[in-house]
Amino acid sequence: MILKWLLRKITNGLTSVSQYLLAYGAFGLFGIALLDSALIPLPGGPDAVLILLSNARPAWVPLYVFAATLGSVIGCLIFYYISRRAGTGALRRFSPGKQARVKELIDRYDVLSVLVASVLPPPFPFKIFIATAGVFRFGVLRFTLAVAAGRGFRYALIGYLAAHYGEHAKELLARYYPYVGLGVAALVVAVFVVRHRLKKRGRGEGGSRAAAAAAAVSGESESELF
Question: What's the pTM?
Answer without folding.
Answer: 0.77
